[in-house]
């Protein structure tokens, strides 16, 4: 299965449209949050309309810059993966949207305790299977969570969850400058960077193998 992994669109409709014209061979699109830049339903609808044009299954979560109307729209579209286990084309995907509080207040944040509670119990029944974790906030102390100043700002709850439950692939975002493909425990960790900056990733997933590469428009 070929995956198209994007995050942090921040209402850059032109970049998403360009991506839809460039990448036509994927089987599943995973969107790790921040469809909008402090926007709501109306802004998200412009994004969703282009997502439909890919004509492939899509799973998405909200980011910290997305307001509640974004979540409502994603749920109505049947593509919202936050706080649940969703199976697409036989692949289980668990989602967690939002982020820890940022230096600048944003609409969708949670505490470490809330993140742990949201994720608790979701992997039940998928032990031994290949599965994907889709999170906006990267795990702490990883290649995907380092800001420009060099500080790690990821979630310890997400990191612990990954180490305990070992998803085959973790798709994240939020920290634009930490676009990377790396190992985290037994998982492959992908931060595609911000699509606003023209960055995204593709991955091959299945049959006991997973690989990914970063790309640029």
Give a description of the structure:
This is Calcineurin-like phosphoesterase domain-containing protein. Belongs to the metallophosphoesterase superfamily. YfcE family. It comes from Marispirochaeta aestuarii. InterPro entries: Calcineurin-like_PHP_lpxH, Metallo-depent_PP-like. Residues 1-199 form the Calcineurin-like phosphoesterase domain. The chain is α/β, with parallel strands linked by helices. It has a single domain (2-216), classed as Metallo-dependent phosphatases (Purple Acid Phosphatase, chain A, domain 2), CATH 3.60.21.10. The model has no long low-confidence stretch (mean pLDDT 97). The protein is globular and about 40 Å long. Helix 1 (13-22) runs parallel beside helix 2 (41-53), helix 2 (41-53) runs parallel beside helix 3 and helix 4 runs parallel beside helix 5. Strand 1, helix 1 and strand 2 form a beta-alpha-beta unit. The protein starts with a strand and ends with a strand. It has helices at residues 13-22, 41-53, 68-77, 112-119, 156-165; strands spanning 2-6, 28-31, 58-60, 85-88, 91-96, 132-135, 169-171, 180-184, 187-191, 199-206, 209-216. The protein contains five helices and eleven strands, in the order E-H-E-H-E-H-E-E-H-E-H-E-E-E-E-E. The strands form two sheets. The protein has a six-stranded mixed beta sheet with strand order 4-5-6-7-9-8.
